[in-house]
Amino acid sequence: MAESRYDYLAYIHAEPPSVWDALVSAEAMKAYFFGLPFEADLRVGGAWRRFFPDGSLMTEGEFLEFDPPRRLVMSWRNAEPEKWAEGYSRCVMEIAPAGSATRLRVTQSIGVPNSRLIAAVAEAWPQVISNLKSCLETGAPALTVPVR
Amino acid sequence: MSESRFVYVTYIRTTPEKLWAALTTTEFMKAYFFGYTFDTSWQKDAPWQLVKPGEGPTDSGNIVGFDPPSRLELSWRHEMDAAARAEGYGRCLFEIAPAGEASKLTVTHTMPVDNSKTIAMISQGWPQILSNLKSLIETGKAAMKPGVGKSKGRRPSAASHHLSLRSQSSTSARVGVPSRPPKLRHLRAAATEAKRSARAGGSPSTSPSTNAP
Question: What is the ipTM of this complex?
Answer without folding.
Answer: 0.95
